[in-house]
# Entry
Amino acid sequence: MTADVHAERAATSRRPGLAALRGRNNEGVLAGVILLLLLVMLVVEPSALTWGFAGDIIRSGLVTLALALGLLLIIISGGMDVSFTAIAVFSGYATVRLMTDLGIDGRVWPFLLAAAIGCALGSLNAVLVARYRMETLIASLGTQVIIRGFLLAFVGSTYLATLPPQLDSVGTTTIFRLGSSPVNIVVVPVALACVALALILRRTMFGRGVYAVGGDKESARRVGFHVARVQTGIYLLAGLFAGFAGMVHVVLSRHASPFDLVGMELNVIAAVVIGGALDRGGRGSVHGTVLGVLLVSLVQNSLVRLGISSYWHVLVIGLVILVGVAIQARSNARGAKRPRILEEVTP
Amino acid sequence: MSERPFALRASGVTKSYGGVRALAGVDVHVRAGEVLCLAGANGSGKSTLIKIISGVENPDHGTIELGGTSAQRLTVKEAVDRGVQVIFQDMSLFPNLTVAENIAMSARVSSNARWISERKERALARSVVERLGLRLDLDAEVQDLPVADRQLVAICRALALDVKVLFMDEPTTALTWHEVETLFRVVAQLKEQGVAIVFVSHKTDEVLDISDRITVLRNGEVVADGPTAEFDHASLVEALLGYSATEDRVLSQALAAAAPALEVEGLAATDLFADVSFSLVQGEVVGLTGLLGSGRSEVAEAIFGKVPTTGGRVRVAGREVSIEGIDDALRAGVAYVPSDRLTQGVFLDQSIATNLVSATIGTVTRRGGVLDESAMAAQVDDAVRDLAIKIGEPTDPARSLSGGNQQKVVLGKWLATDPGVLILNGPTVGVDAGSKAAIMEILRRKASAGMAILLISDDVPELVSICHRVLFIRRGRMSGELAGDEITESNVRERLVT
Amino acid sequence: MNARRRAWLTATTAATALALTACGTADSGTTAPGANDDGGGSDSGDRTIVNVVKLAGGDWFNRMEVGNQEYAQEHSIRVDQTAGDDASEEKQIAVLNDLIAQRPAALTVVPNSPESLEAVLKRARDTGIVVITHEAPGITNADANLEAFVNEDYGAHQMDLLAECLGNEGSYAHVVGSLSVASHNMWAAGALERAGEEYPDITRVADPISSEESQETAYNRTRELLATYPDIRGFLGSASTDVAGIGRALEEAGRQDDTCVVGTSTPAIAGNLLESGAVDVITAWDPALAGQAMLAAAELLLAGEELTDGTDLGIPGYESLGQDPDVPNSFFGNAWIDMTNENKDDYPF
# Structure
């Protein structure tokens, strides 16, 4: 018995070197999986691995990543959200609509306006969750419908094929080219948003509160956090990121359509979860999410290159997502144990 | 010692919840550098008192004096600012954060910090850990730590602030003896540093070991208070449990030729219990008792397949069975009436009838999965008559019944499976005296008819009133047995606490 | 979820009821032609036909509503357009359920998912309401399903346009909205078959590729196709945003001049890409005409006549209906339209 106990202890205490490599949320494992995938591609279709490929991955992952940031906050705090795509499309579309109708134009302020609209819409979730203590998923199911309904009914339901010229010019501004692939200037604000969120999560008391609420809400209350205040902050900030992401989408796709983005939720949720944020809450990091988005984007944008018939695409993407989520779920399946009763027989 | 100032003095604290009085004018005080043991059975009001002093709840009446300033009510923040820290039984740690992050948490929150420096967090955590001479891996996540280390992290977190009064709520429940010693060493250190410690426990030997003074709560009132030297085991147990009305010892007739009904041999479960062996013959009522957290419930749950075992054998009616779930247990003829009927035994919003047939749904279902209404009604009528359950209509929700009758419904549900072995866990907790006597009578009748009954309980009069034998378990191991005339209230009490 | 749906239902019911009551009072003086009560289900004397579409708003169905109202004016009937607030079959079923209680003379329905509407449409027909569907091949519980054209023929027509642009040689890729959208896949099959028959030098590089009905995905797949098949020259798109995504990607890669893009879309979505030349021809059927054809078919049936092979609905492109020999309630027009930069302004949708 004693031997068993010691063996178990040894197994649970991690070796520092390996632990550092693995990362707190399995970021290392994820990076390994990505490398492995690239290696497989190198063997199967070496000509596919080009700089242009890298550029395409960045381009296609950019909107997902921008959308993932706000969601990450919510998932770390133990919540779940499906309204972020509706907030994003509302903010992006409403901003462009406003610009078109008023005949005003700009490059930077539309992003800020969209973020502000997103923040305002996020306050709906904040009120429902923090004030009325609604289940986060249920609250966001409701707000998703309301926000979308309002958008189509009052803001507009037509496809805006052209953006105001200055805003449109952002979508064609290239900072550099990766092979055949232009890298758009909006990479910069998205990267800044990532850094900002990482700083918030790691360096501020609010960020610590997000993890604390996600780890154990009651404990957070007992150490003196205002749980409702932390939650309000989370949903406002998440709305802000979603609004920003909506404008990133508009600028990159160079049109504004009220029917875009909605339906993408599961992709984004999958990327965040694969990135190490568990639906139980309390875990997750920005760099993990970046890797999660990278993995999903990598798989989605390599199947045609690998010559895999499109009839298999959904299956392959589904399998990769399943494996990614399973890796995370498995290594976090250290559930609540019963308190120890048995006395060790001490020699 | 007595010249030291009061760190905490609460007087006349009264608190009611919806007409039920949890605390009735309680006075408690503790001085700096003193260890006060706050002892009391479940429901005595200990937790309510802690919540009031730590600002989680507000009292109806009374004052709380902390470090010379007195207040009617406190917020959590005010309590913390005045040096009150509570280590709750569940420790309230963040499993997803590291040891250093956990230790620094309370201090950072209460200082209204906006920014976090990992370097400062580590420095603070290290200084506390070193002050107590502990060895903790500051970078380990708390969820990966053994329970004993989590306890130490919780203590360190409390000490990262300027703590004057430290409450420890049942801190030893989950610790091994060896780990308890480490904890006591830390408590002694804190005491030297002038911290007032309120140690909540119901384990008498611990209480006598560690405390300078003892305050005993029972039913929301202080029933004993004084220096530890004035107490011994017997007087402490008496204060804790009180003298409950003695019940007559009436044993069911043992069967003439009784075959073995349940044999447990060398049963073990990781971290919970080991080497548990006992047996029951048909018609025998055997008590299994031990203090809360002794492993008594876990053994029963293991036999019923709710706790995975790592060794040992279980034989039912002479046949070895491997029980991996409730289905297996029912097939083998073992029924288990759980301790917490509200969460495990009864579906409050379902009808009484549904509750009664819920374990035997197969026998009232026709081929194709359709419920046989008349068979169901017959079974419900039988049970209601047999157990003398007082009901309005079988279609009323179980919620409409009194606690005693709810328990009878749970009992009836399992008796309907006609088990050879019936395991009951605390069958009369929260049940009125009349229902209790009725339940005991039902059990005696079933035993006379050949059912073997394992009664898990710490209600001493109950054990004495019905058991042919009483088995004792302590820290996960069998620790003794009483049989026949040896079973008296004083003998059982004595075995229980030593 | 439940509460949500209930609230929504109440709102829709109220709105529909209001609309129908308003019609009853406002039009009570007029006598609609064809309301002679010989074959109609309505006994109020007024004829109301309700057009249930996939999703309210949006250029496509707004255009259909323009056609509806034009027809309503000409024929002195009342036509209302309605839909769920998202493109789900549940919402559409709920809307239809409410409408049955209002007993319109006919329903012209564009289903989100034809199979899931069978039951509710059967109930509508059982109460005497004439049901005409559009874009629902194989539906059984409709008096008639009207398609603008035979899908395979349309696909073949798109291939003809692509071949003309490519000069009868080159490789192409076909982007479909989803691999499970029947019509898109029929177009793709029709196009491939036509290429096999008529254009031996035109080859398809891969199986049809799904855009998940997303312009962004169409864009990403196009970039992938360009990287994987550098000499690809043709693209066919099926969902209305496919050619927009394809065109953007080609523009960014500087390939708009040496490639040909043909696909189903609307001037509202692809207009500026037609101008830039990134998209060459877009094809479609006019939702206004499709809506009118459905109404005309409904009126014909309400007047006691029958739809047969060769029936003239009096709507451009639907002058001589074809009947599917295997599925007798299935009729086809010949109503596709080709839009280029030159004529796109004639089609404001």
Summary: Chains C and B do not touch (no CB pair under 8 Å). The mean pLDDT of chain C is 85. The CA atoms of residues 242 and 343 of chain C lie 21 Å apart. Chain C has two domains: 2-142+287-336, 151-284.
